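Listing S7. Sequence submitted for prediction.
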Amino acid sequence: MTLITLEELARSLCVAIGGGIAGQLVVAMPGSAIWLLPAGAAVAGCALTVPEIRAEVASTLPMLAAAGQRVRHALPGGQRRALPTSQAEDAPSTSSSAATHPANAAVPPSTSAAKGEQLIPTLESTPHRLIIGHTRGGKTTLMHHMATSWAQQGERVLVADPDAAPGLWPGCTVTGHGDDLESITRMLEEVKVEVAARRKARAQGTRQFPPLHLVIDEAQDVLPAIEGGLELFEDIARRGGKLNIRMTVGVQDKQVRTLGLQGKSEVLRNLQVADVLKNREGQRVAMIRDAETGQKISLAVPDLPNPERLIKPVEPLRGELKPGLMDYPRRDSGSCVNDALAQLIGRDPGLRSWIDGVEIPELAAQFGLRFINGTQLTMEDIVTPGPCAVCFTTGDGVGHVEYTTNPLALLQAMGNPGLLGMFRPGATSPTSKVAPDPDPLLAALLNTSVPSAAGRPETENPVSVSNPHVQRNENSHTQTRVTVTPERNGGGAVVKIFAQAMAGRSRGGPVRGRGLNMRQRRIRIAREQKAEVLRQAYAEARASGIPSFRKAYADLGGNRAEALAAWQAAAPPTKAASAKA
């Protein structure tokens, strides 16, 4: 098991050897500057462990060789030491090629402009790939090109991108808009279910599976912050190829500690690693490391269109509540209206229309992946004729969903057959067949009485029911209201959802930023895991019969206050354990 990478080992050796020699020279020859030689060599060695610097150095070697050849020709006797004709012709040819084509001068001689067409097939030749690139280095552009190409071929593509924007990933199922880690977590849970299902089918003899692409951008911020994310990454990297589950991961560096893979660096051997960088002329190249041989080659990155051009903000629709609607507050207990709608969306194709770009956390959390299919609707397509009408708009942080259907179909979609017998078209108040304190959604559909939390008298035929909901975090909160209105003729019900994302209450407005939020979450998760390990250790120590906290603390250590709390909360030892101790 490899604990560190080769670059990290080389960097450590350079610091240890060069620093040791420099220290000895300082002691042996005080006042002399000779110690700068080994120190400079150590710094140069550390610099060469960075792939970008190695690429720059490698690009200058052909020019240095050509210059050295000219110097040797100018010296006396240089003609006798000249290279053979065939080799002498090759050297100037390489130099002139570098001078004539400066775009290729910063990459090894084996790289040519034509190899830009070889990069994509090379990356797609393996099930999994790791794309490395710093900010604005072209990493996301390359991943975007491959993902949208797979989607155009009819393959299923799941994208986890905390920087996703409306229309950025056409044809793909996208999660993570605005650092929405909850939606990414739900998507990874669906992937886990799919992995288990395919593994079970393979055990029964199935060998062919439709391709499933999992694309994770900014994985250094996403995977460590999601519970079970690293485990799923490792599982797919090792065994996902047999299930035709392909993974494309984008990171900003390949340090194992960045991905949280300390002690598991061998997992990266299952991925085709491509380090995307720019040379001095601004041309993007990809340093490819073969997953089997480990040999590095340099391939030019083709000129790809900027995916940012696909971002298209959705123009909002304007609307107001109809006059005369009566709102009833929603209880904290019982089934939620949004839950019923989420189930309905999963079964009714008419509700799977998505106006791309809606970023309302509450609605996205309730509807999940089933509500997103990347379809961009126009203003004329918003309201469709027939038994189902869907309306979803955004603008100034306001969203609006409208769905019209038959109440009986809504009850069926809710998966509660016991309530079907309660529905009687035309019934005014079947209170005898409704359980006490009915759900406002069902009460509205059944035209039953709903008591008001404000003490208002019961209404025999309530006009509407609203579901206020407030979701808060450190920086912002979202308020959602759901209104269910039965039609006057009893033939249907209208469900409306209004969601508004409001600014935070902190001075200066909300503090946004993926790095800060995710970093705080990782720190909190690590602290909770450490505290849980400490609690388990002290609980086991006390259960084993250790007589006092002082002795346990001397053996286990940790934060004294947390350790004492864990010791006091632990169950006392049994008599057998005490006697054994």
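Caption to Listing S7: primary sequence and predicted structure tokens for the chain studied. The longest strand covers residues 477-486. The chain has four domains: 6-108, 114-309, 337-502, 514-580.
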